[in-house]
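I hope you will forgive my troubling you with a question about protein structure. The matter concerns a single protein, recorded as an amino acid sequence and a row of backbone structure tokens. Please examine both parts with care and let me know of anything in them that strikes you as inconsistent. Here, with my thanks, is the record as I have it:
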Amino acid sequence: MSGPNGDLGMPVEAGAEGEDDGFGEAEYAAINSMLDQINSCLDHLEEKNDHLHARLQELLESNRQTRLEFQQQLGEDPSDASP
């Protein structure tokens, strides 16, 4: 698990500074591709969430209207109803 500065908490070996970190261009490209896919999935989930939120808002408003109509039919005062 990385620390607050992004370090892995592993000791640096003597003479390891300046050496290749073990990752080549192919590994970085693969990681970048995976991050792009994750980003696309998150964007898609955000769109679905926004759509569901809008639909739930519509349903809530519809239910409020229906409740008010029922209360009016029963002769109740809508202001007496609990929210």
User: Anything to note?
Assistant: The first helix runs from residue 25 to 74. The mean pLDDT is 81. The helical segments are 25-74. Residues 30-73 form one domain.
